[in-house]
Specification:
By secondary structure, the chain is of the alpha/beta class. The chain has 11 helices and 8 strands.
Length: 262
């Protein structure tokens, strides 16, 4: 029996090309893989950096709908694996009932998660600190990236990831997540959908921008009749999907998917 296709979804500031090692890993285990960009993303990091206007002002629903259109072209519902805001998008897509299973790696919080750890606020301030950023694409400086993403890895590795994969990101999704508790439904997930596929949410205990308390709180929102699990990885920051330890996360995700019958 052929294995399902896996659709990988990147988050803010990290280009879709960062999924290449994951794609090779899962292809070696029999899966077909896709890593579509967000609307407006360039084909390469360089293209994305050169044309931030194309990326700007993209909201969560627009991005989710773009992935839903890609999924609709497949022969059957895929597995969806997303990191950061890609993890939130994974949950939105799973909640729509158009994915067979989902892995949300250190995801941005869904609507209804009210916790706001200091490190998450500090990580988001480069964007949220200026309301005029709403319709813009914003880049992180290396110092900002180091704090938000790469605090758990050495500076030279952080610099390598920054140089190879970072790009401007639309500010609108961060504003939508920040105001979700009292306005808007862009980050709302249908957690009551009992026909959805199983979901794994991960957290890194040193993650600054998406501390594990957010993933745990999201997991608690789901109807318990469908598998929903939370896995904490020790000594890992937000770069865990693209740094030297990525394979630990990939191997755990593979084992979990196999356990669910995929």
């Amino acid at each position: 029996m052929a294995k399902k296709t896996i659709v990988f979804i990147h988050g803010l500031w990290i280009h879709a090309s960062s999924w290449q090692p994951w794609m090779v890993f899962f292809q070696q285990h029999g899966y077909a893989t896709l890593n579509p960009g967000w609307p407006g993303d360039g084909d390469t990091v360089e293209d994305s950096r050169a044309n931030p206007q194309a990326i700007a002002n993209r909201g969560v629903t627009e991005v989710a709908d773009s992935y839903a259109k890609i999924i609709a072209t497949l022969d059957e519902p895929p597995i969806v694996i997303g990191h950061s805001f890609g993890g939130l998008l994974t949950q939105i897509i799973l909640g729509r009932g158009i994915a067979a299973a989902g892995v949300a790696i250190d995801p941005a919080p869904i609507k209804g998660v009210w916790q706001l750890p200091f490190s998450a606020l500090k990580s988001s301030l480069p964007v949220l600190g200026n309301p005029f950023n709403l319709k813009k694409a914003v880049s992180l400086s290396f110092k900002q990236f180091k704090y938000a993403f790469a605090n758990a890895i050495p500076d030279d590795e952080a610099r390598d990831i920054y140089d190879r994969f970072t790009m401007p990101a639309p500010a609108r999704p961060l504003f939508q997540a920040a105001t979700a508790s009292f306005a808007g439904n862009e980050t709302k997930v249908n957690t009551a959908n009992t026909a959805r596929g199983p979901l794994l949410i991960t957290g890194g205990d040193k993650d600054h921008i998406a501390p594990p308390i957010l993933g745990k709180a999201s997991a608690k929102k789901y109807n318990k009749s469908v598998v929903t699990e939370f896995k904490l990885f020790q000594n890992r920051g937000h770069s865990l999907a693209s740094d030297h330890g990525w394979k630990e996360i990939a191997e755990y995700s593979l084992a979990w998917l196999n356990k669910q019958g995929f």
